Write a sequence for this structure.
């Protein structure tokens, strides 16, 4: 698996992918900077008890659409590298099982999005310090804000990886991803079983960890189904 | 282990109601350059895809190196290099990076990249992005990629498709040198018989999904026997005269055709004609080209 991952890392050289990985969290932090910059007095009054908590809460709402849109584009770009010049036939005629090829691509998307989440984590800390919110940084809730939505969004990472690989025309996965992003933004009224609600970490039990477990569980199932389907199909 | 490197048994692929490949029995011996011929859409690429495990046969089996492709696909593929149709490459990467991405998967030593680049003479362009390459260079890069894992079997699908004459020549020379220098067995497909004529040792001809000929290229050449055509005035009378003298002849297109015969026999015929006061305009040998035989075998598919 490390081999396919290393090979895929070479393939994304000089693509916009790395830039996007940076752009997502940077965009969230920059928008929060504008948000707090323009309404500094109002927001600091509103969150006077817990300045860091306020910032984290605000950032979380922006991070969800960024994450959903980001995973759509990343999955599409990773698959697009092979679609572009029909490299699937060359890749899959190598002595590498299709399961490993699929897993390598999925792992690449997961690692890249993890990197994005980490950048968001660091970015928000820097922003908080610049905004003079003090040095009592609530690391635990910061970690939750940065990584929990990412873990809860795993079904979408797996689904988009499969969809983008299966379809040569990337318009369809992109449309599905954009619709999903919108759904996830207005998911508050949806029931708890609705996967688009999970990245928001809201659920009836009041503990975000359940959203994470649900995401990881369904993510694993979709990944397995996707890899079986990929292995079964003839290569175009 | 059987004597064949590739052996298929009733290999069949069905798409919905259409047979793309039907009961094909390929047999390729070690060290051969096997020319796999057929008009466009005859099933060559589908067969090759099945050989590489890219498509699953509907029916039939494939043995490569004496191993069943279904059970030991990855073991077999370790010793196979391939190039399917137009070249696959990553345009934004350099030639070297393209090969590196494949090398990692093959576990080949790094030095192998420079070796294969020099085999296909791309060493000087190794650091350039591939999107700026000409088609011939991309095709050579594809062959370099196929050679990375030191294969014992090379499967090349239409490697000269779309190349200019010098590119075709280059690829052809490259292919011809492989069995000699590296002991590689090669399966190469094409829709041009003339091309195969210049490099293949064995030929398989497929049309409409069925294998219609499989033998050495010499056997195919022997089919191209020559005929003697004689052009005279008053063809019909001349022909009747020859028949009455007991000479086998055919008349077609206002010409008389004699089956291939000795010089003496021809001179006798000409003598008879002149004796009977026919004017002999032309006596010429007409040889059927391999193309003609190919067209005949594929029953004028018309897609050449």
């Amino acid at each position: 698996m490390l081999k396919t991952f290393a090979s895929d890392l070479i393939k994304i050289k000089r693509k916009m992918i790395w830039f996007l990985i940076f752009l997502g969290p940077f965009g969230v932090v920059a928008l929060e900077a504008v948000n707090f910059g323009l309404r500094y007095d109002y927001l600091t009054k509103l969150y006077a008890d817990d300045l860091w908590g306020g910032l984290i809460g605000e950032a979380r709402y922006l991070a969800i659409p960024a994450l959903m849109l980001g995973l759509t584009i990343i999955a599409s770009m990773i698959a697009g590298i092979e679609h572009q010049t029909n490299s699937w036939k060359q890749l899959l005629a190598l002595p590498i099982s299709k399961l490993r090829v699929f897993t390598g691509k999925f792992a690449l998307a997961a690692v890249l999005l993890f990197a994005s989440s980490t950048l968001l984590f660091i970015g928000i800390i820097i922003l908080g310090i610049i905004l003079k919110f003090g040095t009592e940084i609530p690391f635990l809730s910061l970690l939750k804000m940065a990584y929990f939505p990412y873990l809860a969004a795993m079904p979408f990472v797996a689904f988009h990886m499969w969809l983008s690989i299966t379809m040569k025309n990337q318009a369809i996965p992109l449309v599905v991803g954009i619709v999903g992003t919108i759904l996830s933004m207005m998911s508050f009224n949806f029931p708890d079983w609705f996967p688009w609600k999970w990245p928001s970490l809201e659920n009836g039990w009041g503990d975000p960890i359940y959203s994470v477990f649900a995401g990881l569980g369904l993510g694993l199932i979709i990944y397995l189904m996707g890899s079986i389907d990929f292995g079964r199909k003839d290569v175009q | 282990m059987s004597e064949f490197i590739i052996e298929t048994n009733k290999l069949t692929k069905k798409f919905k109601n259409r047979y793309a490949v039907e009961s094909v029995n390929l047999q390729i011996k070690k060290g051969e350059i096997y020319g796999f011929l057929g008009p466009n859409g005859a099933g060559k690429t589908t067969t090759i895809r099945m050989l590489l495990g890219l498509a699953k046969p509907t029916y039939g089996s494939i043995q490569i190196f004496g191993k069943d492709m279904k059970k030991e696909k990855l073991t077999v593929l370790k010793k196979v290099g391939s190039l399917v149709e137009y070249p696959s490459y990553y345009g934004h990467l350099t030639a070297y990076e393209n090969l590196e991405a494949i090398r990692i998967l093959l576990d080949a030593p790094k030095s192998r990249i420079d070796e294969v680049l020099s085999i296909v003479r791309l060493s000087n362009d190794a650091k350039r992005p591939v999107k700026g390459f000409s088609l011939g260079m991309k095709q050579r890069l594809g062959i370099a990629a196929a050679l990375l894992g030191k294969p014992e079997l090379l499967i090349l699908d239409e490697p000269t498709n779309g190349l200019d004459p010098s590119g075709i020549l280059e690829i052809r020379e490259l292919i011809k040198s492989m069995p000699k220098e590296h002991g590689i067995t090669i399966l190469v497909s094409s829709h041009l018989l003339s091309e195969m004529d210049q490099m293949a040792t064995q030929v398989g001809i497929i049309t409409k999904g069925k294998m219609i000929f499989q033998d050495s290229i010499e056997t195919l050449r022997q089919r191209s026997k020559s005929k003697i055509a004689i052009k005279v005035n008053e063809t019909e009378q001349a022909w009747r005269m020859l028949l009455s003298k007991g000479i086998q002849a055919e008349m077609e297109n206002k010409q008389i055709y004699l089956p291939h015969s000795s010089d003496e026999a021809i001179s006798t015929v000409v003598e008879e004609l002149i004796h009977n006061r026919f004017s002999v305009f032309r006596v010429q040998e007409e040889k059927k080209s391999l193309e003609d035989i190919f067209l005949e075998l594929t029953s004028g598919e018309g897609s050449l």
In short: Residues 2-232 of chain A form one domain.
